[in-house]
Amino acid sequence: MKRLSVESTMRIQPEQEISISYGGKSYGGFVGDTIAALLYANGVRVFSRSLKYHRPRGLYSLDGECSNTMMQVDGEPNVRAENTLAEPGMVVKAQNISRGKTADRDAMAFMDKMSFAMPAGFYYRTMHKPAKAWSKAIPKIRKAAGLGILDPEFEIAGVFDEIYPTSDVCVIGGGPAGMRAALAAAEQGLRVILIEKRPWLGGHFEYRMVTTEAGTPLYQRARELAAKVLENPNIRVFDHTFLVGNYNNNLVTAFQKGGGDEVFTQRYVEIRTQSLVVATGCIERPLLFERNERPGVMQVACAHRLARTWGILPGENALFSIGDDLGLEAAVDLYDLGMNVAGVADIREDGQNDLLVDALSTRGISLYRGWLAMSTKGTKAVTEATIAPITGKPAKTVECDLLVASAGLTPVTGPLTICRARQQFDPRTGFFLPTHIPGKVHAAGRIWGLQDNAAIEASGVEAGLLAAKDCGCDVAGLLEEAAALCDSLPGRARGAKLVAAAVSGKKTFICFDEDTTLRNIDQAMAMGFDVPELIKRFTSAGTGPGQDGIPGHNLPLYVAQTCLSPDEAPRPTNVRAPLTPVLMATYAGSSHVMSKVTPLHAGQVTAGGRMERIGVWMRARRFSDDVSAANEVETVRTKVGMLDASTLGKFRLYGPDAEKALQRVYAGDMTRFTQGRIKYAVMCNEDGCVIDDGVVVKEGENDYYLTTSTGRAGETVAWLRYHTRFDGWDYHLVNLTDAMGVINLAGPSARKVLTKVTDTDVSNEAFGFSEVRAIEIKGIPVKAMRLGFVGELSYEFHVPSSYTQALWDILEAAGKEFGITPFGLEAQNIMRMEKGHLIIGSESEQRTNLLDLGMGFLWDRHKTDARTVGHAALTQAENQTGRLKLVGIMTTDASADVPKDGSPIIDTGVRGWLCTARYSTTQKRPVGMALVEDSLAVEGTELGIYEPGCKGKLISVRVAKMPFYDAAGGRMKS
């Protein structure tokens, strides 16, 4: 396990040894090693087998650009070994191999010789006929061509957490540009979050020995900047954090890998920021030549970082085929570290850095200008490579165990693309450069094609100041200075134009993940697929685990160079989130329940509430272990009870056009009720299907208070805005859901309790059913409503959240002599069901409209001028037959078990569904509500309900008239 002596740049801790298991053997390494680095240091060269052809694949990159190093780690498949830190005791296994313990041997390797039989679009054109054969063949093909196997019994270990920080400025990328941007913004007193996917800051500076103009080695400059960032109290660094996506209004999502002193394995990170700086830098553009993915072929940064970061010499005898000065720099440095460099083929005819050219000459390393790699030879690893001029002749074969190959750089523009930035191909750099970046988003560093180190840092400063300006900081003078400095430094560097060597393309892989070759691209274009986006789908290039990391830049360049595409200039393919794959466990988070709680939550728990998550809220299902909640129902029916109803949506709607907005979204005529009265109303969607119900109170001229169902509260604002967006109406909608609490006081003794705590006359004559009053209870201002959802005398008290618990305590004390107790959702559900009051979503579904639910009386057919949402659909459906109708049902046998909610109603087929059923103490049998075909909706019709385990014996029910309790409504109106 001897490593190079490169302590100045090395990121491992040689004094702390670890070991992992691979292929049944133990391999040693050090703390700080990645799995791939550790295995490479121990001589492992074949890491996996490719998807279709089962070709051997080795270490090619180090930032997860392809699936070459995907392995199964501790039972988890598809782990990228190249950027996953090794931990003691890890059990690592190779994937996509047939027999054997490692990827060195694979019985399916013969598939490589079958590539001629799998041209572009092979799967699309053949895997559908004959249909009978493919039902048997597909499972076998999937087994033979799979990246990893997920064991259904596998349980992922670890702690998964989530965090939701906010910031003024978020910087993506911890390289020199990103660090300078973060510092520039933080110096203005702003809160800054910096995201870096590697476990440390530094970017492309952190392993390089060349110096700045001041004579400071780049690795040292990286550490200086990192120290400043980590010391700045305004900057929060998320290292080893992978960007997932960035969305509207600068919502940034990512996930962070833990380890070491961290208490989590992975955690989901969701950041809301005012301004965003994208400083993601570049990755290398693969050089395309025959057998360009053979183990022993790797990118420049991969070879250089192996040596400088992990102290591993990537090979003994290397050949370089490169397209920029970074390749020359790496060749010189690796030679100095002890690696023999057989030669450097540089795609460029000229433009090389003179100092680097002299350094090659001093070391006796041959430089071949205008040359590149044409092919490699070897079985499981490179043994020799052929280089030649761009024309292909004359060729020169060189023995080597390592071919360092790169066509140059390509910017990582995914974070810009998914926030709808426009890009255009720049012939000078060979990059797709942003031409328009919407919103408060800025790009910095190498992403602009900058290669000069000072220019990269200056670009970061300017981007950080622009972000500060977005946040309202006065930085005009600083911005002017930063822009002037950027203009004085070298601009965009010239990039290599070459895409592919002059080869047949038979085994020139443009996409490693999907085994897509240049020949496949040619075949697709010959069949008429002439733009990159279509070719990508037809050939699968860029659709594998690495997405567009390897083929994303070469594909549009190659298509454009064939002159068969209608695009005058190369056009990049689309990039979509997630930019990095995320574990479902990370999205799910830890075992704690993420939910909202009402102002009464603590009191409900203390009172013995059995709390359950209902939608986004934690609510009391009942207050005892009796699942039937019979005692709670009896208390409300005979005495008095209280329910926490704070989860209702609550809104204030006001302004000159408030009434017009109500007319638009509610089915009824919202002009026909007066101040002091409550109007029950429903909303429909464009299909006439009921999506919400609630009550509306007119509090003054063009001033309304309205409630919605719990499930709809979060969408009401958007719903009204959407349906009035073109009218130019002047109104305001304020969401008071969290600002107001609601207590439902219900039962025959409810008025007695209320009388004890208020001086307001609450007699039936002064405060009748369906009326609202502003009252005061022991000094607490209350909006009181007379409603009857549970079928009893009932008051709904709407109060500011901070008063809700105090009001509950006052009512509880006043009601003690009347036997007051709390009741939960289960008791409410039983009572409202007996009363025939439906809950949207329980007794309705996406096909049932207002008429189907028997609520047509709420629809005003004559207010066509309001263009009410759903009016046209309801008009068409008014006389339709063959629809589902809501009916009441009761079992024919009083002793029958209560059928389960959601059970199908069948005879020769499914004829409907049971919505809700409970045992009714009033009817002395199970009753409920169901949606059935309209031909079965006649009272007295007998139906059969199927339940699993019934052994063919259906539960017999009959359609019954609703409501099942107090049909005249005297109890809630008295």
Brief account:
By secondary structure, the chain is an alpha+beta fold. The chain is 23% helix and 27% strand.
- Overall shape: it is elongated
Radius of gyration: 35 Å
Structural class, please?
Answer: alpha+beta
**Beta-strand percentage range:** 25-35%
The appropriate CATH architecture of the largest domain is 3-Layer(bba) Sandwich
| CATH homologous superfamily title of the largest domain | FAD/NAD(P)-binding domain
What is the top-level CATH class of the largest domain?
A: Alpha Beta
State the share of residues found in helices, binned by percent.
10-25%
What is the count of distinct domains? 6
Number of beta-strand segments:
48
Instruction: Return the CATH topology of the largest domain.
Output: FAD/NAD(P)-binding domain
**Oligomeric state of the chains in view:** single chain
Uncertain parts: none
Q: Mean of residue pLDDT?
A: 93
Number of helices: 24
**In angstroms, what separates the terminal alpha carbons?**
89 Å
Structure characterization notes:
The chain is an alpha+beta fold. The chain has 6 domains: 105 residues, Ubiquitin-like (UB roll) (Roll); 202 residues, FAD/NAD(P)-binding domain (3-Layer(bba) Sandwich); 118 residues, FAD/NAD(P)-binding domain (3-Layer(bba) Sandwich); 140 residues, 2-Layer Sandwich (Gyrase A, domain 2); 87 residues, Aminomethyltransferase beta-barrel domains (Alpha-Beta Plaits, 2-Layer Sandwich); 135 residues, Probable tRNA modification gtpase trme, domain 1 (Gyrase A, domain 2, 2-Layer Sandwich), CATH 3.30.1360.120. The protein contains 24 helices and 48 strands. Strands 8, 9, 10, 11, 12, 13, 14 and 27 form an 8-stranded mixed sheet that branches. Strand 45 and strand 46 form a beta hairpin.
